[in-house]
Amino acid sequence: MKSTITWLGNKTFTGQTESGHSIVIGTADGNAPKPGPSAMELVLLGAGSCSAWDVVEILKKGRQQIEDVIVELDADRAPEPPKVFTRIHMHFVVKGRGLSEERVKRAIDLSVEKYCSATMMLEKTATVTHDFEVVETA
Length: 138
Prior knowledge:
By secondary structure, the chain is an alpha+beta fold. It has helices at residues 39-61, 101-115, 117-122, and strands at 3-9, 12-17, 22-26, 65-77, 85-97, 127-136. It contains 3 helices and 6 strands, in the order βββαββααβ.
């Protein structure tokens, strides 16, 4: 896997992935608008999307009729550099018809505790917790 980061000036960069996707990354001084997510925001989004992907795949293989998976993330960082994540809580909202709470719980547990490589890396510095809710759709 390869990526390229290019400085655009000030505190703004672009990231280009090997697959051809680009994103503006950056921070701003004071109340100025940010040009894009910060690097640490991207790390947190990476963990959430990695785990959401796992959950969708596991539930689809289990023939669960999912319609939506949302992961709400809440995190704390250390006050001093390198300001790593110290706590991450992942709240999963799984929507669908006739979903088994037991299967949803198992899918989330498997993702967070076994399959999601992003979560595994973050657990080196952060306490990662998770919970979920199942929403029945009509």
